[in-house]
Amino acid sequence: MADIVQQRLEDRIPALEQLERVGLFTSKEVKSMLKRSTALEYKLHRTVQSKDDFITYIQYEINVLELIKKRRARIGYHFKREEIEYPIIHRINHVFRRATTKWKEDVQLWLSQVAFNKKWGTKTQLSKVLSSMLAIHPDKPALWIMAAKCEMEDRNSSESARHLFLRALRFHPENKKVYQEYFRMELMHAEKLRKQQQELEQAKIDVGEYNFSPEILSGKLAEVVYRDAAQKIKGAEFILSLLQIAAIFDFTKELQDTILQELQSQYVDDCMMWDFMAKRELDAAGAPELQSAKGRASDTDRREERCCVVYEEALKSLNTEAMWTCYVTFCLERYKRKTNVSELKEKRKERLLRVLQSAHDAKLLQESFYKNWLKVLLSSGDTVSATQIAITATQCFSQSVEMWSFSLQTLVQLESTEAGHLFQEALKHVNPKVVVVPQLTLSGTQHLTADLP
Predict the structure, then answer these.
(1) What backbone phi and psi angles, to 5 degrees, belong to 251?
(2) What whole-number distance in Å separates Cα of residue 257 and Cα of residue 277?
(3) How far apart are CA 446 and CA 235, in angstroms?
(4) Considering the entire predicted model, what is its pTM?
(5) 3-class secondary structure for 44-58?
(6) How is domain 367-453 classified at the CATH fold level?
(7) Which H or E run includes 96?
(8) Using one digit for the tens of pLDDT, what is the confidence trace for 375-414?
(9) What is the residue extent of each domain of the chain?
């Protein structure tokens, strides 16, 4: 062990001498560094090795690198990096390699080495580390994605990134995130090539000498990824995630249209598709820019009505709780939006109440929406309807303690004569120990309506 440590220390001497010779460190500092390094080296060669000792060693060497960087900047000396920094970087990677060999399953160790090589610009070493890490941890999709991003962003190699994504899909053929990031990478690659082509054209350089494939520039590789993904992974939500990624790029109109058409034709029984199509009406082209607040409010109202037309159309063929939930959620979100135009506020309230009633009549209204319904009625001062809905809600969800408690609170607030009867009914359906009996207080009333706009 002593011979190995001695050899390691001797290997350090040329770099330490350079540090002193060029004025980055004093003789005293160099001696102190050598002493500290000796202690750290011996710890790494003990019979029983500790992961903490390896981490401490690595952190010490990184601190030395950072200090060298600061001192170079201070005295303006930027030479002899091959003789000073490179041996330290090589040594750190060697210790990382020993650590990851001994503690293969420690993902954080691998990620620390990746981060180190990214920061210090050792691109060749970075690829080796990523390759070794994936050989040990092929079961972790996030590592494949990270490795591909490193190849794309740090090494500027779209080919290597593509190769990694394809390998990742062999291990994870139905992983949504891998497909999403692969799709994004191909679009980023196309965007980068388009910018390069534009810069060459602006510089009046003949682009004929360069290989700018029209198919790649238009995003055809991304379309291939999309089609493969759409075959492997079903569901409108996933297809919509790819559509949203494509929408980030300004050259993908044709690709977006393709995805949208297939989404509409293949997922007519998926509420996520209808929800997306309905909300698209909010962004559809409308009237020219309107100056008055009432004019803008009127245009907003027309857009929201068009959204409702789509929801109503969806319910003709997809009369499900999930579809009604999308519709009610949309109306509730629009109702909660701030507006200074009272007419728009009133129309939103009427629309919300109408849809809530329709969903209730269809017996497809979720429990949580009854609370929203009651809050809207209470804020409007419609005590008769609030009383009726409070009682009706308990009939629909007779086993829900929360529903009984909320309805009782509402009736007590309204000083309704039905409160006592409702309480007796509650005791028949749920454990009396868990029913909350509300008190009629001003603060209670304020709390009930506090989250309304």
Answers:
(1) -110, 15
(2) 13
(3) 43
(4) 0.85
(5) HCCCCCCHHHHHHHH
(6) 1.25.40
(7) helix 81-102
(8) 999 999 999 999 999 999 999 999 999 999 999 999 999 9
(9) 1-103, 174-265, 268-365, 367-453
